[in-house]
Amino acid sequence: MSQEIQDLLAPISFSQDHQPVLLNEVVGAFWGFREKQNLRYFDGTFGRGGHYKALKKMAPQMNAVVMDQDQEALSYAEKEFMTEVQNKELIFIPKNFSHFTDSNLNLFDMMFLDLGVSSPQLDKSDRGFSFYHQGPLDMRMNQQQTMTAEYIINTWSEKDLVSLFQDYGEIYSPFRVVRAIVHDRKTKAFTMTQELAGLIERVEGWRKKGFHPATQFFMALRLVVNQELEVLRDTLPAMIQSLIPGGRLVVITFHSLEDRIVKNIFRDSKEWGYPVNKKVIIASDEEQKTNPRSRSAKLRIFERIVQDEQRESFPT
């Protein structure tokens, strides 16, 4: 199967600024559906559509409903996948996947979430996700919302900032950084990414080669600004229940807190199905070398139970 997947994917070209992670593994997880008729696919984090493009090549008969709250992703989809959109093979809903339940989308054979920030979001300085690029302290995936990282850094209390970095950044002792933030913002508000990153670097210093001291602080802010853990915790059970019996849900995470939520929900959903892979799937050494952003990626697969009495009711 591995060679078949590689042969399938070899001629596909992807956006220059975004290489989908764990692509072979995602296609492999859904490989058994490639000849199924009336095939329905849901993607809650469409981004630049890299995984969708590969799965569409695997199963051209596939119809998809996809979601993304990023306005740039919407514009890209309308341009890049215009034919599929016009033929109603691809229905794009410009919302966060937290709206999955109230969108009444019915059942799916294949469902997918990639919870990482896309490369275009990271690389564009005006989005404020990266401490390597000077830009506004924004970090909003949905550019229509009002909560930003700048608001949190400049208005939250010392106690609340400590809790944020401990709970969402898994930083054992953020006290010195938080005290420095609270002290410095009295004189001048933090508005730019490198102002905050520079303070963290100054206070914390470089303790691990190749690991910027601001990494976990920025991750924590991003998770809170976008309520990512809460959305995942609330929506994943509903997605499991929207699988056709025998259907599969694949989730890629990039943070231990996200992976823990996925692992626990999959494990505790015994009445609906079971985790396919007991051990988490990670990128190959080759992929990690060619795409460094895949190094922290973890993939888990959930499969819906097929009861004997349901086998005749659902297409196979």
Provide a descriptive summary of the structure in words:
By secondary structure, the protein is an alpha/beta fold. The protein folds into 2 domains: 2-120 and 228-310, Vaccinia Virus protein VP39 (Rossmann fold); 143-225, DNA polymerase, domain 1 (Orthogonal Bundle). Helices cover 41% and strands 14% of the residues. It has 14 helices and 8 strands. The chain has helices spanning 2-9, 23-29, 50-58, 71-80, 82-86, 119-123, 149-155, 158-169, 175-184, 193-204, 215-225, 228-241, 256-267, 285-290, and strands at residues 40-43, 63-67, 90-93, 108-114, 243-253, 273-275, 281-282, 298-304. Strands 1, 2, 3, 4, 5, 6, 7 and 8 form an 8-stranded mixed β-sheet that branches. It is elongated.
Question: What distinguishing features does this structure have?
Answer:
316 residues; alpha/beta; Rossmann fold; DNA polymerase, domain 1; 41% helix; disordered C terminus
Indicate the CATH architecture of the largest domain. Answer: 3-Layer(aba) Sandwich
Mean pLDDT: 88
| Main sheet properties | 8 strands, mixed
CATH superfamily of the largest domain: Vaccinia Virus protein VP39
Terminus-to-terminus distance: 20 Å
CATH-defined topology of the largest domain: Rossmann fold
Helix content: 40-55%
Beta percentage is 5-15%
DSSP helical segment count: 14
Rg estimate, integer Å: 21 Å
CATH class call of the largest domain: Alpha Beta
* Record field, number of beta strands: 8
The ordered string of helix (H) and strand (E) elements is HHEHEHHEEHHHHHHHEHEEHE
Topology:
Elements (H helix, E strand, L loop, with lengths): L1 H8 L13 H7 L10 E4 L6 H9 L4 E5 L3 H10 L1 H5 L3 E4 L14 E7 L4 H5 L25 H7 L2 H12 L5 H10 L8 H12 L10 H11 L2 H14 L1 E11 L2 H12 L5 E3 L5 E2 L2 H6 L7 E7 L12
Parallel strand pairs: 1-2, 1-4, 2-3, 4-5
Antiparallel strand pairs: 5-8, 6-8, 7-8
